[in-house]
Structure formats: structure tokens, C-alpha cells
Amino acid sequence: MITDIKARDIKRLLLRVYKKYSSGAITEAQAHKETYLLNSVLKAIELTDLEDRLQIIENTLKNG
Question: What pTM, to 2 d.p., does this model score?
């Protein structure tokens, strides 16, 4: 199981998909599938990061 994936990791993977597609190594359909999945993971990372930050702010405000 992969843990602690960062947004920069997804960026790197998206660039890899772009390069594979640009070189003809994968089809448009395959590139679309891969980018869709990677963007879904990126959104989840962004949301959980924001959730964590918000929780820290709320705790700080609550506890002074």
C-alpha cells in the first residue's frame, strides 16, 4: 500500500503520462484514464490537507 503521497508526486506522474502520450507510447484513451485517476487522487490529497489545516486553526482558536 502506498502512503504519504504528496501533490508533487501526482504532478510528476501527470507529467509522465503527458510525455508517454506525446511520444505515442500510450493512446489518448489510456492517457485520459490515467489522468482522471491521478486528478481524483490529487483532489483527495488537497481536501484532506485543507481539512487538516482547518482542524489546526479551529483547535488553536478554541484553545487559545
Answer: 0.80
